[in-house]
Amino acid sequence: MKFKHILTAVSLTLLCQITSAQITKTIEASEQKEKRMEWFHQAKLGIFIHWGIYAVNGVSESWSFYNNYLPYDEYMKQAQGFTASKYNPAEWVRLIKESGAKYTVITTKHHDGVALWDTKVGELSVVKSTPAKRDLLALFVKEVRKQDLKLGFYYSLLDWSHPDYPNKTKTETRYKDDEARWKRFQTFNFAQLEELNSRWKPDLYWFDGDWEQSAERWDSKGIVELLRGKTKDVIINSRIQGYGDYATPEQGVPVVRPKDKYWELCMTMNDSWGYQPTDKNYKSSNILLRTFVDCLSNGGNMLLDIAPKEDGTLPEEQVQILKDFGRWTAKHKEAIYDTQAGIPSEHFQGYTSLNKGKDILYLYLPYRPNGIVEIKGLVNKVNRVWVVGNGTMLNYKVHNKNYWSGVPGNLYIYVPEHVLDKDITVLAVLLDGPIELYRGEGKVIENN
Ligand code: GLC
After folding, report:
1. Whether residue 295 is found in the same domain as residue 376
2. Which residue range forms the structural domain that includes residue 100?
3. Is the CB of 294 inside a 6 Å radius of any atom of ligand 1?
């Protein structure tokens, strides 16, 4: 009996120790993640680059053969026309920096399996299979590092060209159950990632195509361990079946704030990721900037895509958009980097964000305010309001505030026409301390 009691006590102590060890481990892991995500959270704008043999005929990247819009062999023939003859990575990076982006993510390999670097483990690469004959990735990385941007590698986990990958197109399957072949593919995937990782140690991996297999099949855990083995703080996006650091909504702007603290909206300038000259459906810079402040307002990043031509030059529409972003981001930097998600929309009809100390509220006005903008439910006293990037101090006044009521009044800020930005005007509202909001339903006045 006594022995039984001792045993229970020992097991309970052990259990407590294990649980507390687990809790410590979880806390450590989440602190580590916060640290690792710091630069990403402050970066706000990234430029995505989709560059591959699909630019030769201007067909959709990889999907065009997968969806049988053209036969696989025809698609692959584009390799013969991929020259990179005017490739100037220094100019690309200069433009990316000019846009205000703090990081860039390039397709090292899309679903078609053609590597942009001189891979030693695969048959398909721009070096071996195209007249470009150079390691285009190496040249890009060199410039990114030189000009001090953060470096991201897009890598497609699935490879529809690989002889040991089960699927080739929507209608053509190489095999169903063949563990030996799958193992060979896995070894190949790990070897390519090992090449990328040990040679360039990027700051971020942007996986794609995870939907075709499970985490066990990809060995997502093993991949993460492989990558973090070299670069402990490398950031990994969500598309690796549950093992990533941040969410990657695509094209559609989230309406409700994403649950993940860290997220990034990837978005095209027209309707295509790769270069498609027939796609002239470009969004205006103004619309793309609105989307950008929408992301800021919800605490996320935007990863805006550019699509170089086969010779390495950029379509002029895309260059213009990068420059337009540059104008706006240079003027408004104080209200971009290092901000966090803003206040609920009931308080302000528009996009908002907060500085780190939460005592500056930024209001983004993508419209002409017709003289006045209004904030509701602000408990704080306002110390001053100015126009970001312009400096003009603005007049403001609180109405509907009675001294006996705890319900804050409405803050009206007077915005003259001459301070308006041609795209989006930003106001900074300096508060007397971290923001406090009244979220009630109002009150009956019982005592005047
Ligand atoms: C999609 C597509 C791909 C594109 C990517 C970018 O998942 O498969 O073509 O590269 O999104 O986000």
Report:
1. no
2. 34-331
3. no
